[in-house]
Design a protein that fits this description.
heterodimer, A: Alpha-Beta Plaits, 2 domains, disordered N terminus, B: mainly alpha, Formate dehydrogenase/DMSO reductase fold, about 75% helix, globular
Chain lengths: ~300, ~400
């Protein structure tokens, strides 16, 4: 039985927050891409993330193809058009009305958001999904029995099932956790030629994103998608167009599993209460029966019970 | 009323083909077709054989799972009334209900084998835990409670075989077993509601509420009492003995009262959450919820609680049947119709899903019918003999 890691303890949070203030200051001083050494070091000190600057995406789909190759997925030369068991990320081409009424094409890379408090991890019947301390939400295919509850719990519709396999399993982006642990950055961010995908510590990326919004008036909407959505996600977005127009779900700040986890933690209490009520009900009822039987036997004389 | 009918039935039974034989034949044929469909799914996989997709990963199989568990709540409800709280007046109705409970859970287990992506790993929840997961708790409770139901049903067979010692042991441990069963049922009946709390982004606000666990438990009790009425009437007809009016009326009245409690909680919660305008918006979702509550809760509760109406023979089975229809609608609404998939995808169940479901339901209905006919479902001589 592997313990599931959901979120950080308070002490861990304070520690990482302290570290990341330093990291954020460094990131601001040296804008642009984080060096590999810095990123790999951070992957063990502070939770990592990916910042996706949609204004820099040109729709080349290098990331989606690099993803397929890194994960050994089928048809590595065909750019995918949706998330599936054979594609952990894709570049969505959205036609939207821009701020001046013109039709704009906006490319949106989509993949697992790697939530800080993931509903899929909370929901998984067999604990096959885990939030790692480094940030990625990873999936252990040896545990999964294919109940597909994670697909319902995910507010972004990310986990995909192998529908064509008679003994199918779930597939999702793991943020290249193997590469992270080997000191490399994820395949998608490494392949991006325009700097639209940036890998680094999540807190540093948020500080950088905030600075970008502040220092480039009019280039971005004042919203870092993923900073607060469902309690925060490790993948963050910057955009010129409002996120709801680009197909991003409008979500509150509360983690999805908040109610379910509260109810589940009361399970022992509920069990004890019900068992106590039932037991005392039984004892009271049998006592009453004995009294009645006694009264009957007295009125009928000896042997009245039979 | 039942005396006349059972008399006629007994008369008919002596001539030509018995109606029971026709039922058996039809159910057996459907069962065989269902086996073929089930094997087809296991060999070919979910993609080619079902209408399921990444936007609708759960379909009618899960809908029937939720429905069957609520209906099979009749087992724990009647065990609680008779074995735990010792309401002896309902004793005759406990066995048909506990039998229906076991067969309901059996159907759920069979449906889950078809539905699981890896049926070969069905036991993984035993070796791989996640205490946060509602479905983890439900899996454990269903496993343990099915065991409880097997024990609760065992005397029906032991008595038929005249096994004295096993019958005695079963009666000795029955109160403890029943208390364990009531506890396990309270947990997983409510946790099935908790399960949907992890889908706030998919479920329509008229259905989504933090009190879903309480609503699921309460509706399982009202479904349980209602099904107890129906299976009791049915079982008395099958064995050709009169149904006791006080049992039918008592359980019916209980179901109506629980339905009223459910109604107050449901509407009160909508009111507190400011959702009453949405309830009466008369759009698609509002009409669905109004139908669910109107036909499945308000109407049967009114029928059962108005004395002049409630004593009419047709109301005695129609009102519980309406409550069951309401719970049927509720479980399917929250699983399918009141859900919004991302990208507006749709799900159309395949004929194989329908056929396998019909097969499994037929198999358990057949098993229930045969058990009522050939096991000891009413003869409680043995019970009295060992009880005191």
């Amino acid at each position: 039985m592997k313990p599931t890691t959901v979120g950080l303890s308070r002490r861990e949070f304070v520690r990482t927050a302290g570290l990341t203030v330093v990291a954020a200051a460094a990131g601001l001083a040296l804008p642009g891409k984080v060096s590999l050494a810095q990123a790999s070091q951070e992957s063990f000190s502070a939770p990592v993330g990916v910042l996706i600057d949609l204004t820099r995406c040109v729709g080349c789909e290098s990331c989606a193809l690099a993803c397929k190759r890194a994960n050994g997925l089928p048809n590595p030369d065909v750019p995918p058009t949706e998330l599936s068991a054979g594609a952990y990320c894709y570049v969505d081409e959205r036609k939207v009305t821009g701020p001046d009424g013109e039709t704009v094409t906006q490319f949106v890379k989509r993949q697992c958001m790697h939530c800080l408090h993931p509903a899929c991890v909370s929901a998984c019947t067999v604990g096959a999904l885990t939030k790692t301390p480094e940030g990625p939400v990873v999936y252990d295919r040896s545990r999964c029995f294919g109940c597909r509850y994670c697909q319902y719990a995910c507010p972004f519709g990310v986990p995909a099932y192998e529908w064509r396999n008679p003994i199918g399993l779930i597939h999702k982006c793991q943020l290249c956790v193997g590469r992270l642990r080997a000191g490399q950055e994820p395949a998608c961010t490494a392949s991006c030629p325009t700097g639209a995908l940036r890998f680094g510590s999540r807190d540093m990326l948020i500080a950088q994103a905030r600075a970008q919004i502040d220092s480039n008036p009019g280039r971005y909407v004042n919203h870092i998608y993923g900073e607060h959505e469902v309690g925060g996600t490790s993948v963050l977005y910057l955009s010129r167009l409002p996120f709801d127009q680009l197909g991003f779900p409008v979500l509150g700040r509360e983690p999805v599993p908040r109610y379910a986890e509260a109810v589940m933690s009361s399970t022992p209490f509920v069990a004890l209460t019900v068992a106590a009520i039932a037991t005392s009900g039984y004892l009271l009822a049998t006592r009453r029966e004995h009294k009645l039987a006694l009264v009957k036997s007295e009125t009928r004389g000896p042997g009245g019970l039979r | 009323m039942t005396t006349d009918v059972s008399y006629l039935e007994r008369k008919a039974a002596t001539t030509a083909i018995k109606p029971g034989d026709v039922i058996v034949a039809v159910l057996a044929c459907l069962t065989l077709l269902g086996v073929v469909a089930g094997v087809g799914r296991l060999v070919l996989g979910l993609g080619p054989t079902t209408g399921l997709n990444d936007e609708y990963p759960w379909g009618i199989w899960i809908g029937f799972d939720f429905l069957l568990i609520a209906f099979a709540g009749t087992g724990f409800t009647m065990a609680a009334l008779v074995h735990v709280f010792r309401l002896e007046q309902f004793k005759d109705a406990v066995r048909p209900a506990v039998l229906a409970g076991l067969l309901g859970y059996t159907a759920v287990l069979l449906l889950l084998v078809l539905d699981l992506g890896r049926p070969d790993r069905f036991y993984h929840f035993i070796i791989s835990w996640n205490l946060h997961s509602p479905l983890f708790e439900v899996s454990w409770c269903v496993l343990l409670y099915t065991t409880v139901l097997v024990i609760e049903n065992s005397p029906f067979l032991f008595e038929r075989l005249n096994w004295r010692w096993p019958v005695q042991i079963a009666f000795k441990i029955m109160p403890v077993v029943a208390i364990v069963g009531v506890t396990l049922s309270s947990l997983h009946q409510s946790t099935l509601g908790t399960l949907y709390l992890n889908m706030p982004h998919r479920i329509n606000p008229l259905w989504y509420t933090p009190i879903l666990p309480v609503l699921f438990f309460t509706s399982a009790v009202m479904a349980g009492l209602s099904l107890a009425v129906l299976v009791y009437i049915l079982a008395t007809r099958i064995v050709g003995r009169p149904a006791k009016v006080e049992i039918v009326d008592g359980l019916g009245k209980g179901a109506a009262l629980v339905a009223l409690i459910y109604l107050v909680m449901k509407v009160g919660d909508l009111a507190l959450a400011g959702k009453l305008p949405a309830l009466f918006a008369l759009d698609e979702m509002s009409l669905l919820m109004l139908a669910e509550l109107g036909i499945g809760v308000v109407l049967p509760a009114a029928l059962l609680l108005v004395p002049t109406v409630g004593r009419r023979p047709v109301v005695r089975w129609l009102a519980p049947a309406l409550i069951l229809a309401g719970v049927f609608a509720n479980r399917f609404d929250i699983t399918l119709f009141a859900q919004r998939a991302p990208d507006g995808a749709i799900y159309v169940p395949s004929w194989l899903e329908w056929l396998s479901t019909a097969g499994i339901l037929s198999a358990v209905a057949l098993a229930w019918y045969l058990a009522v006919r050939f096991l000891v479902i009413f003869d409680s001589r043995a019970e009295e003999q060992y009880h005191h």
